[in-house]
Amino acid sequence: xxxxxxxxxxxxxxxxxxxxxxxxxxxxxxxxxxxxxxxxxxxxxxxxxxxxxxxxxxxxxxxxxxxxxxxxxxxxxxxxxxxxxxxxxxxxxxxxxxxxxxxxxxxxxxxxxxxxxxxxxxxxxxxxxxxxxxxxxxxxxxxxxxxxxxxxxxxxxxxxxxxxxxxxxxxxxxxxxxxxxxxxxxxxxxxxxxxxxxxxxxxxxxxxxxxxxxxxxxxxxxxxxxxxxxxxxxxxxxxxxxxxxx
Length: 246
What we know:
By secondary structure, the protein is mainly alpha-helical. It contains 10 helices and no strands.
């Protein structure tokens, strides 16, 4: 019973953050799995990606209904993201456990700091014709990060879309969820093949995240983006640093 309660609570928190901030929640799920279930880092990453498939789907439905998804842009980001995710999975499977752990710590902590100091949002841009080559590169890099560290990839996709392609913030979040879904699906398949996914824990987490994700998305639509960005940046930094105390 304690196992189910821990899994549901962790899944609910991760799913809510996924819907709230447009993030897959892997930066929270990975350290939570490591601490709560004493799972090895590689298996925690694989299980995280499995859970993110469900939380991203639930969140995406909510954003799509609000017409905040750039489907044409996603067409270029998603395929390159899936290739990048498999590359990240391959690299992780061949790296020592300690190396994966510290790459995760450094990456999510620096990304959290970057988000925290990034200037406030400005959604005045209404572009629909984006640089396709740059979109492919963004997807490739975000997918690689997803497979390497077990995060959905939005920690890279959202700021890159906003800064370099000038995509409005709402559309950044909605579009990133499409990429998160496919990156996580691609990455989790790679980890399943290598037997790095704990389905018993993953299914319980997925149930909690699927329930909470739409609630987070609903609140996100009503909350200023600057406040959401600062809040998640702090969570990102803390979750990365928490792995140091494992």
